[in-house]
């Protein structure tokens, strides 16, 4: 046996154990689970709607009439600064177009003007929302006509 084979046989177990240990350091962290908001009280959106999780509270209002071919202004106030808010108005047929709300400078006040198109069924209208906070998506679904 030459000196190269002998060196390889001696070093191979140490490399295998070292590689096994170092693999844990380069493994990606586990995905954070999604969080779902709970509604506080009646969430018919005629006045306001309060949504809560363990670490985040939202106060959601809208102005305008929930009618086809009308604009409504959706406003959301958060208890802490959030990264992103996506909101979609959809119906039972899942006709929807999600869009990002516009934040204020402090990322706590968000708003967006929405047009309720003629294809949406007003009686089955649903607000679907995804709020990203600390990299974790927080989901909510609200039925304004419930």
Short description:
The protein is elongated.
Number of helices: 1
What would CATH call the class? Mainly Beta
What is Rg? Answer: 25 Å
Structural class: alpha+beta
By CATH, the architecture is named: Sandwich
Q: What is the 3D form? A: elongated
Describe the largest sheet: 6 strands, antiparallel
**How large is the share of residues in beta strands?**
35-45%
> What is the CATH T-level topology?
Immunoglobulin-like
Sheet with the most strands: spatial strand order: 2-3-4-5-9-8
Please give the share of residues in helix: 10-25%
Order of helices and strands: HEEEEEEEEEEE
Give the overall average pLDDT: 82
Care to describe what's here?
With 146 residues, the protein is α+β, with helices and mostly antiparallel strands. The protein contains one helix and eleven strands; from the N terminus they run αβββββββββββ. The longest helix has 23 residues, at 3-25. The protein has one domain (35-142): Immunoglobulin-like, CATH 2.60.40.10. It has one helix at 3-25, and strands at residues 35-36, 38-40, 49-52, 57-63, 70-78, 84-90, 99-100, 102-103, 109-116, 126-133, 136-142. The strands form two sheets. A six-stranded antiparallel β-sheet has the order 2-3-4-5-9-8, with no helix packed on it. A five-stranded mixed β-sheet has the order 1-11-10-6-7, with no helix packed on it.
Feature tags:
146 residues; Immunoglobulin-like; six-stranded antiparallel beta sheet; five-stranded mixed beta sheet; 1 helix; 11 strands; elongated
């Amino acid at each position: 046996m030459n000196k190269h084979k002998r060196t390889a046989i001696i070093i191979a177990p140490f490399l295998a154990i070292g590689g096994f240990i170092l693999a844990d350091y380069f493994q990606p962290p586990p995905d954070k689970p999604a969080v779902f908001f709970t509604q506080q009280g009646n969430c018919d959106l005629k006045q306001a709607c309060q949504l809560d999780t363990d670490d985040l509270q939202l106060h959601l209002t809208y102005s305008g009439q929930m009618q086809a071919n009308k604009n409504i202004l959706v406003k959301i106030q958060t208890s802490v600064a959030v990264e992103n808010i996506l909101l979609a108005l959809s119906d039972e047929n899942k006709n929807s177009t999600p869009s990002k709300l516009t934040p204020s400078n402090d990322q706590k006040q968000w708003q967006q003007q929405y047009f309720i198109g003629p294809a949406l069924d007003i009686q089955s209208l649903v607000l679907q929302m995804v709020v990203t906070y600390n990299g974790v998506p927080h989901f909510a679904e609200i039925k304004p006509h419930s």
